[in-house]
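Q: Joint fold for the lines below.
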Amino acid sequence: MSSGSPRVLPAASGIAEAAAVLRTGGLVAFPTETVYGLGANALDARAAARIFEAKARPSFDPLITHLADAADLPGLVGAVPPAVAALVDRFWPGPLTLIVDRPAAIPPIVTSGLPTMAVRVPDEPSARALIAAAGVPVAAPSANRFGQLSPTRAEHVVAGLGDAVEVVLDGGPTRCGIESTIVDARGERPVVLRLGALPVEALVEAVGPVDVRPGSSGQPVAPGTLAAHYAPRTPLRLGAAEPAPGDGGRRGFLAFRERPAGAWAAVEVLSPEGDLTAAAARLFDALHRLDAAGVTEIVVEPVPEVGVGRAINDRLRRAAATWH
Ligand code: TXA
Ligand code: MG
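A: Joint structure:
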């Protein structure tokens, strides 16, 4: 592929052009309320294959299919189990991905050969307008190269994927900033396969007890749950704000609410108010900035292990695991 830049269009006015690219088998990056997705026509195996190529994503890592409206689900997959339907009614559109049986219309490459399919309706008007205008379900993983930081701004997509993507819809920074929560609700008790923007507490309030198995290595696999993932290029470790003794290096610090004392070359504070939702929204952007700051190491402070804080800590642990 030639080197160059993708066409970056405003999300408000670029929908028709982007939808045409999807309909003809091309790739479009678009904002959702969680992170930017790299979309292709989910009914077209060749288009889906281009996603794996553009991301350098292993073929065993299945994609999430995105719909414009919850009412489109039965038309694609037929009857859904009552427990899945209850979650659809309660949380769609929103940052909840559900596991259903893969319908025949979806080619196996989309689900990496799994008999199941991950599906959600994003809570971002331009994303839903794009999918509706394309007139097809849209397979979309996060619009970053495999294993790297997730994109929460159009600039992150352009820097990470370049012209591997034809069109980038720019809708500004994403609201949640962290990926959707993935739940398999087909069995006795719902199982959380990936912690995400919808807090476990909200699920429990709606449907009662759930099992949380984000690190499960059993089938089906959710590779956003691979031990090493979501990583910056700069070595990253979890730690406290004390400068290491005798440390003369240029180090960066990712703080939850308070600026650390000491000689840090770069500091990012996620939320001075201590608001975990705000912290999640800034997480990947702050990591992208620290990664670009020319530091030799990024030290990150874990956040409180509650609500969306659990998903933030999950991403930080996986980012740190790359550097062990
Ligand atoms: O918020 C999100 O979910 C974003 C936006 C773009 O919607 N998408 C996203 O996609 O995070 P991706 O590919 O980065 O992560 C999708 C995760 C992967 O870990 C994948 O393994 C899992 O979903 N997944 C997909 N299909 C699955 C299935 N049938 N069973 C279990 N996990 C599945
Ligand atoms: Mg991803």
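Q: Anything notable?
A: Confidence is low (pLDDT under 50) at residues 216-220. The pocket of threonylcarbamoyladenylate (ligand 1) is lined by residues 32, 34-35, 37, 61-64, 95, 97, 99, 111, 114, 116-118, 122, 140-142, 179-180, 182, 193-194, 220, 222-224 (CB under 6 Å).
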